[in-house]
Write a structure and sequence with these properties.
single chain, 2 domains, 13 helices, alpha+beta, 23 strands, Rieske Iron-sulfur Protein, about 25% strand
């Protein structure tokens, strides 16, 4: 007997589980696209990726193709990548610059704001044809916070400001690594795909438990290079907390950077950078900014130390992940160069970190074919986590509070239930 989505997450005292079917059932995947990706705010790009009128890039919301375009009016437009005539995709390039989008099938032409500008052999249509009603379909809602662009396929629901209420301060910490509060996403991108469910990446990015085991070989390499010891890194992984927030968000929150695979913002050689931050934000806030915070915004966005990571579900067992390095504005060039080299070493396609994780995703999806084992166990630290005055579920750095927060929101949305308790912004 198949379980209903609401029965696929067990949330009891000292017992939190997710049913195997959530990762392997195509019917569940289709429902996720409808009730999660097509109903919530989904990250689609960064303002720095379309800085000038005519700049565009293509992406997806769930599985639906979109164009993110800077119009001649200076506004950001998010439109479905589909000709209104016979349904062909207009843009097949990942990014570019165009004053117009021309359908390759029958030549219909649209402006970079989506307005229909021309139809070849227009005498085949009556003079009364209303071209103004045949422009590209825009997604119902688009909003931006700190340069991050979000879209919602639903015309209803909470505003982006309300959506980001609890996680907003952590987004600010991430953005304020720049002493002028501005970031630029590089033109380069690291992309990988794996034959597994999208939620495996969701679970992994805020998981402080796996690093000592999955990335053990990398730790031994840096120890042999004399950079640090395996023992020091494993001890550092014990510091800090994990946090599970409302809306399915979560983060790893450690006070010290410099862990193997991450850039060390506390390096005494970065005195000029530290001075710039302190002048901009003061000593107390600077100390917070210099910590390590891997932030997840449900359902598809990670803000990592060095990059923006986006989850793109393709099917129940096919996921694409894109990592776009982030440049800090207002800092010495060599700082960004060093950050990029660190990113490449750990997260790049020839790096020694991200490929380890991908292998684990494949292992898990393979193991899930043993469907006689019904449940995934995500109860680590449940007995010791606390809920603070801001409504955050806080646990030790290797606990699974962020994952539980994500699956609570997953269950709510999959059951189309109204939101529970939301805490006001501070």
């Amino acid at each position: 007997m198949k379980l209903k989505p609401g029965e696929m997450v067990i949330d009891q005292e000292n017992d939190f589980r997710v049913h195997t079917a959530a990762y392997v059932d195509p019917v569940i995947f289709a429902l996720e696209m409808e009730r999660i990706f097509e109903q919530t705010w989904v990250y689609v790009g960064h303002e720095s990726e379309v800085p000038e009128a005519g700049d565009y890039q293509t992406s997806v919301v769930g599985t639906q193709p979109i164009i993110l375009s800077r119009g001649d009016d200076g506004a950001v437009h998010v439109m479905f990548n589909r000709c209104r005539h016979r349904g062909s995709a207009l843009c097949r390039d990942e990014r570019g610059h165009a004053d117009q989008f021309c359908c390759p099938y029958h030549g219909w032409v649209y402006g970079n704001d989506g307005a229909l500008q021309g139809i070849p052999q227009a005498d085949g249509y009556p003079p009364t044809l209303d071209k103004s009603a045949l422009g590209l379909m825009h997604v119902p809602r688009v909003a931006t916070y700190r340069g991050l662009i979000f879209a919602s396929l639903s015309p209803y629901g909470e505003s982006l400001e309300e959506r980001l209420c609890q996680v907003r301060k952590y987004v600010d910490h991430w953005c304020d690594r720049s002493p002028i509060g501005k970031l630029t996403l590089s033109r380069g991108i690291h992309r990988f795909s794996y034959p597994g469910n999208w939620k495996l990446q969701m679970d992994n990015g805020v998981d402080g438990y796996h690093g000592n085991y999955v990335h053990e070989s990398f730790l031994k390499v840096v120890e042999r290079a004399g950079e640090t010891s395996v023992r020091d890194v494993t001890e550092l992984r014990r510091t800090g907390y994990v946090r599970g927030l409302s809306h399915g968000d979560g983060l790893i929150d450690r006070p010290y950077g410099g862990m193997a695979g991450q850039f060390d913002y506390h390096n005494p050689a970065l005195t000029e950078y530290h001075r710039l931050l302190q002048e901009a934000y003061g000593a107390g806030r600077t100390a917070t900014i210099l910590g390590q915070q891997n932030v997840f915004l449900f359902p598809n966005l990670f803000l990592f130390e060095s990059h923006v990571r986006v989850i793109k579900p393709m099917s129940i067992d096919h996921t694409v992940v894109e990592m776009r390095p982030v440049m800090l504005e207002g800092v010495p060039d060599d700082l960004n160069t060093a950050r990029l080299r660190t990113h490449e070493r750990f997260f790049g396609p020839a790096g020694m970190g991200a490929p380890d994780d991908v292998e684990m995703f494949v292992n898990v999806q393979s193991g899930l074919q043993a469907r006689a084992v019904d449940w995934m166990i995500l109860s680590r630290g449940l007995h010791r986590e606390v809920r603070n005055e801001d409504g955050e579920f806080v646990g030790a750095s290797t606990d699974e509070a962020p994952q539980r927060a994500a699956y609570r929101e997953w269950r709510r949305l999959m059951c189309a239930e109204p939101p529970g308790e939301r805490f006001p912004c501070t």
